[in-house]
Design goal:
mainly alpha; globular; glycoprotein; transmembrane helix; taste; Taste receptor type 2; bitter taste receptor activity
Length: about 300
């Protein structure tokens, strides 16, 4: 019999899963339709499609992890698919990193020659960045699949079996996985913090020098800063939760463990909602799709 707080966690998990799949599905439909209509490569639409597809896959895997936590599915099923989880999670983080770099290059009001050079070339590089990310993320899955499977068996057994003891040999592999994730994190942090500080300084300068009516772009800059800050908080929370879950700091099914698992799953759904709410085109199309769904009912 499940305890009350486990039932609450399961309900939140189902809501998180449905919101994530719906939000990312809308992003795929809107940008996929744009790519088909235009019949040419649109860098941002292509990146958003790839990011949303990877997050739908990640939401499915996280949902199965939550079912395993509640003992609703068996541990071997999770272990067999752990290689896919490692690939999808890392791939989604790389896509989110390139999205941060793209926004920084296109939006940040920086006059340095390097950023002018990057702004011109980032669109042409996008397909190659996506392909390179897929190749980089697939390296552990292709060359270390056996080690990852053994690692997942040890970790999941120690997590889901109350009397099992943690095997110390897995610590090196744990650290190796976290080090691999540091590279997209550092690139993402650099691009987003640079975007936030440059927009903040530009907004402050516009407010101090303005003599007439308030410039509408000031409000746009403030909303952009808030969106990027929300994205940054979600991303850092995702990394911290992944580290704590990887090192098995908390006991299985404890309240803190469930919170970490919920925070880990909030990133792919929460950021997609921020993308939709912060993008007028996505927001308008999302309303149309939801209204169309209600009319069909």
């Amino acid at each position: 019999m499940l305890e009350f707080y486990l039932i609450i966690h399961f309900l939140f998990t189902v809501m998180q899963f449905l919101i994530g799949v719906l939000a990312n599905g809308i992003i795929v439909v809107v940008n996929g339709t744009e790519l088909i209509k235009q019949r040419k490569m649109i860098p941002l639409a292509l990146l958003l499609c790839c990011l949303a597809i990877s997050r739908i896959c990640l939401q499915l895997i996280i949902f199965f992890m939550n079912l395993g936590t509640l003992f609703l599915i068996e541990v071997p099923l999770l272990a067999d698919n752990f290689v896919i989880f490692v690939f999808v999670n890392e791939l989604g983080l790389w896509f989110a990193t390139w999205l941060g770099v793209y926004y920084c290059a296109k939006i940040a009001p920086i006059t340095h020659s390097f950023f002018f050079w990057l702004k011109i070339r980032i669109s042409k590089w996008m397909p190659w960045l996506i392909l390179g990310s897929m190749m980089y993320a697939s390296v552990p899955s292709v060359f270390c699949s056996k080690q990852i499977w053994v690692y997942s068996q040890n970790v999941l057994s120690s997590l889901f079996s109350p009397n099992a003891t943690q095997i110390k040999e897995t610590s090196a592999l744990q650290i190796a996985f976290l080090i691999r994730l540091l590279l997209p994190l550092l690139i993402f942090l650099g691009s987003t913090l640079l975007l936030i500080f440059s927009l903040g300084r530009h907004t402050w300068q516009m407010r101090n020098t303005a003599t007439g009516p308030r410039d509408p772009s000031t409000g746009v800059h403030v909303s952009t800063i808030l969106s990027v800050l929300s994205f940054l908080v979600l991303c850092l929370s995702h990394y911290m939760a992944a580290a704590m879950l990887s090192f098995q700091i908390f006991q299985l099914r404890s309240l803190v463990f469930l919170i970490c698992l919920w925070v880990f799953g909030s990133y792919p759904s929460g950021h997609s909602m921020i993308l939709i709410l912060g993008n007028p085109k996505l927001k308008q199309n999302a309303k149309k799709l939801l209204l169309h769904g209600k009319c069909c009912q």
